[in-house]
C-alpha cells in the first residue's frame, strides 16, 4: 500500500482522515508505540496514516512482538461517508497486514449506523467499527450482534458522547451475552440520554432467559429510521418525547385505546408478518402508579362507587402532548376532574374538550390555586435529566398539591 493510494481516498469530498484526539509530537507517539512493542503489549494501535506512509511499520512491530496484536485504525472526521468509501477504507487497512482493523466515524444521524453494521460482512480480519456522538451509541451497543471484535467504554466520571460507560456495559447491557440471534428493542426519543429503560428492561430479559437487548435510540427523523431498520431483529420500541403522537403514522395497526388517546408509547413488530403494532401503556401504568401512591399515603378518599382514590379529585395536568393525553384519558376514566395547562393553548383546549375538562393558559399556572388534595401531573420536559429538581409550578405552590407525578418522556 503506497502513500499515493492513501492520498487518493483522503481527498474524497467531505472526507477527512484524522489522528483521533492526539495533538502531540508525532515522533513521541512513535516512540510510545515502540515502547509498547518492547514491553510486549497485547494490543498496539497504529493509525492508518502512519501504517501507510511507513509500509514496514506493522511488519517491524510484529517481528519484535510476536505475542501482541497490531490494530490499524482510521478516524473519519465529518459526516459518515457512503458504503463504498467505507469499504475502500477497510481494504486500505487490511492491506497494511494488520491483525485487527478499527474504523471510527461521527454519526450525524442514527440511520448512518447501518453502513457501519454492514462492514462486518466484508471484512477478512477482525473489525472494530463504530460511530461517536450521541446518535452513534447503538453502533457500540449492537456491535457484538453484527460481529464487532471490541466494544469501547468510557471510564467513570469521564463520559464521552457515543461511548457507553464501562459500568453500563457490564451491569445494564451485559454485552458479553449479545450475539447474532439477539433481538433489539429500544427507546425512540430526542433527547434519549435521560432514559432508565436499559437498567429496567435488560435485567428483565436476562431473568427470563430472553435473548434481547434494550438500547437508547436518538432519532431525528421517524420516516428515515423505520425505513432504515425494517429487520425483524429490531423487534420493538418504546416511544418518548417528542414522537408519541407523530409515530401513529408509521404504525401498520394501532390498538383502539391508543387510537382514542391519539398517542403511542409502545410498538411491537409482529413476528408473523413484520407489521408494526402501536399500543399505549402510559395510560394505565401512570394512573395505576398514582393510585398506588395515594393509597400508600393514606389518601384513598375517592368516591366509593368508582373504586379509585382519584374519583372526584382535582387532577391538574401540565402538558397536553402524547404523555399528557394518556394521563388525561386515564384520569378521566377514574372519575377525576381535570384542569389542563399547555404552552399551546389550542392543544390544551382540544384535550380538555376530549375529556370534558377545563383548559387554562400556561401563563396562569404560576397563579393557579389548587384545592386541597389536588394532583399535579407533569407531562412536560421540565424536570428531565439533568435538571431533575425542577418542577413546572412555583415552589410556593408545590406543597399545596397532594402528589407531583413526573411522567416526562
Automatic annotation (TrEMBL):
CDD domains linked: DHQase_I
InterPro entries attached to this UniProt entry: Aldolase_TIM, Aminoacid_DH-like_N_sf, DHquinase_I, NAD(P)-bd_dom_sf, Shikimate_DH-bd_N, Shikimate_DH_fam
Alphabetized Pfam families for the sequence: DHquinase_I, Shikimate_dh_N
Parts of the chain that traverse the membrane: none
Molecular function via GO: 3-dehydroquinate dehydratase activity; shikimate 3-dehydrogenase (NADP+) activity
Span of domain Shikimate dehydrogenase substrate binding N-terminal: 187-267
PANTHER family: BIFUNCTIONAL 3-DEHYDROQUINATE DEHYDRATASE_SHIKIMATE DEHYDROGENASE, CHLOROPLASTIC-LIKE ISOFORM X1, SHIKIMATE DEHYDROGENASE
Protein name as catalogued: Shikimate dehydrogenase substrate binding N-terminal domain-containing protein
Upper lineage: Eukaryota, Viridiplantae, Streptophyta, Embryophyta, Tracheophyta
Gene name of the record: LOC100788604
Amino acid at each position: 500500500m503506497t502513500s499515493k493510494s492513501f492520498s487518493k481516498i483522503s481527498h474524497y469530498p467531505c472526507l477527512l482522515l484524522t489522528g483521533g484526539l492526539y495533538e502531540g509530537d508525532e515522533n513521541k507517539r512513535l516512540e510510545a508505540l515502540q515502547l509498547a512493542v518492547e514491553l510486549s503489549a497485547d494490543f498496539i494501535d497504529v493509525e492508518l496514516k502512519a501504517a501507510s506512509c511507513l509500509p514496514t511499520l506493522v511488519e517491524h512491530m510484529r517481528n519484535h512482538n510476536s505475542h501482541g496484536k497490531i490494530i490499524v485504525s482510521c478516524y473519519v472526521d465529518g459526516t459518515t461517508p457512503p458504503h463504498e468509501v467505507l469499504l475502500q477504507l477497510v481494504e486500505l487497512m487490511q492491506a497494511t497486514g494488520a491483525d485487527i482493523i478499527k474504523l471510527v466515524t461521527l454519526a450525524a444521524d442514527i440511520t448512518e449506523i447501518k453502513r457501519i453494521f454492514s462492514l462486518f460482512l466484508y471484512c477478512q480480519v477482525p473489525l472494530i467499527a463504530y460511530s461517536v456522538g450521541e446518535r452513534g451509541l447503538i453502533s457500540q451497543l449492537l456491535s457484538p450482534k453484527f460481529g464487532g471484535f471490541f466494544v469501547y467504554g468510557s471510564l467513570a466520571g469521564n463520559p464521552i458522547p457515543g461511548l457507553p460507560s464501562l459500568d453500563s456495559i457490564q451491569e445494564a447491557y451485559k454485552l458479553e451475552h449479545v450475539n447474532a440471534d439477539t433481538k433489539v428493542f429500544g427507546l425512540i426519543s430526542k433527547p434519549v440520554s435521560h432514559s432508565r429503560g436499559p437498567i429496567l428492561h435488560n435485567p428483565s430479559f436476562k431473568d427470563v432467559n430472553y435473548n434481547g437487548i434494550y438500547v437508547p435510540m436518538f432519532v431525528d427523523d421517524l420516516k428515515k429510521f423505520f425505513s432504515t431498520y425494517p429487520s425483524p431483529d429490531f423487534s420493538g420500541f418504546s416511544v418518548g418525547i417528542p414522537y408519541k403522537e407523530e409515530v401513529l403514522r408509521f404504525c401498520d395497526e394501532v390498538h383502539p385505546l391508543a387510537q382514542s388517546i391519539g398517542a403511542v408509547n409502545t410498538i411491537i413488530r409482529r413476528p408473523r408478518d413484520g407489521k408494526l403494532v402501536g399500543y399505549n401503556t402510559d395510560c394505565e401504568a401512570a394512573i395505576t402508579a398514582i393510585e398506588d401512591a395515594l393509597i400508600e399515603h393514606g389518601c384513598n378518599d375517592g368516591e366509593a362507587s368508582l373504586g379509585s382514590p382519584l374519583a372526584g379529585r382535582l387532577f391538574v395536568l401540565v402538558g397536553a402532548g402524547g404523555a399528557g393525553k394518556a394521563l388525561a384519558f386515564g384520569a378521566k376514566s377514574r372519575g377525576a376532574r381535570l384542569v389542563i395547562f399547555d404552552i399551546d393553548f389550542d392543544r390544551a383546549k382540544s384535550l380538555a374538550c376530549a375529556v370534558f375538562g377545563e383548559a387554562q393558559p400556561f401563563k396562569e399556572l404560576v397563579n393557579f390555586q389548587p384545592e386541597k388534595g389536588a394532583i399535579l401531573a407533569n407531562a412536560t420536559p421540565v424536570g428531565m435529566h439533568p435538571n431533575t429538581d425542577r418542577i413546572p409550578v412555583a415552589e410556593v405552590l408545590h406543597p399545596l398539591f397532594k402528589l407531583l407525578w413526573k411522567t416526562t418522556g
